Automatic annotation (TrEMBL):
Keywords, in A-Z order: Membrane, Transmembrane, Transmembrane helix
Organism field: Clostridium boliviensis
UniProt xrefs under InterPro entries: ABC-2_transporter-like
Protein name in UniProt: ABC-2 family transporter protein
TM annotation in the entry: 33-54, 66-86, 118-137, 149-166, 200-224, 236-254
Manganese is among the record's keywords: no
Pfam families: ABC2_membrane_6
Keyword check for Iron: no
């Protein structure tokens, strides 16, 4: 309990410092609001063009697809607001030796990396994603109950954590290899594909890849399936199992990477 309170204090301090630094340069603080909102609208127009003449994808109609796009956008927006810019810098810090500064501090280096570069400029993405989710619920004729919404929120939280774990795992490869660039490119390609196609359309080798190896195929699919009452017990168990496996694997690779790390100055 004492350690948890200390970590929460550290997170609060990191967030306060980040906001203070951003407010020193007002354009740096407010500029991302405009940029991220424009990027989101462009993506929305692309999705509209793709699905304009499509009534169904697999067993899902337009309502479910809109809900899927909104859900994936929400998970990605949480990622962009909280931890992406901190975690994304791990490879560069390993190469440059800046990781030394994190290892010598009396706080978990991963905790600091996760929260030290929050991005308030991506907050509009959260709002716009919420609007799309609400529209998808209405378009799909889904009757919302408190328990249904609570369960949906739970699955979005689980999949957001899974998203985080995959990002950390891929970037932790830089502890062992000269460059994790190829893995990051693979990550971006998988994300781009799965943001447009729900997991229900994947079969065979594609299902193995996007349900197990790069589990982007389940990140928005399972929350939507729960909200539309399509999620089976097997599907729910699979989602939890994948999150647990990646938590164990990521923790192992990170710890081994820290042990393997040699300072650039040594």
């Amino acid at each position: 309990m004492g350690r948890m309170k200390r970590n929460l204090r550290v997170v609060r301090v990191l967030i306060d410092m980040r906001i203070q630094n951003l407010m020193m340069y007002r354009l740096s603080f407010f500029g991302p609001f405009f940029v991220d909102s424009c990027v989101f609208l462009v993506q929305l127009f692309v999705f509209q063009a793709v699905y304009y003449n499509v009534d169904r994808i697999g067993t899902w109609g337009k309502g479910q697809m809109i809900l899927y796009i909104g859900t994936f956008s929400m998970i990605n927006a949480i990622n962009m607001v909280i931890y992406f810019f901190g975690i994304n810098g791990i490879p560069d810090k390993i190469k440059s030796g800046d990781m030394d500064l994190y290892l010598t501090k009396p706080v978990s280096p991963l905790l600091r990396l996760t929260f030290e570069r929050i991005n308030p400029g991506a907050v509009p993405l959260l709002i716009l994603s919420g609007v799309i989710i609400a529209y998808g619920i209405r378009k799909g004729g889904i009757e919302i109950t408190p328990s249904l919404m609570l369960g949906y929120t739970f699955w979005v939280a689980v999949m957001t954590v899974l998203y985080y774990l995959v990002e950390v795992l891929i970037r932790s490869l830089s502890f062992f290899i000269l460059s994790s660039g190829s893995a990051v490119i693979l990550e971006e390609t998988g994300l781009s594909l799965c943001m447009q196609l729900p997991g229900i359309v994947f079969y065979g080798a594609y299902k193995v890849i996007f349900y197990m190896i790069l589990p982007y195929g389940i990140m928005a699919t399972i929350p939507v399936q729960f909200l539309t009452r399509e999620l089976t017990l097997g599907g729910a168990m699979w989602g939890i199992s994948v999150a647990v496996v990646f938590a164990i694997l990521t923790a192992f690779v990170w710890k081994q990477g820290i042990k393997h790390y040699n300072s650039a100055s040594s």
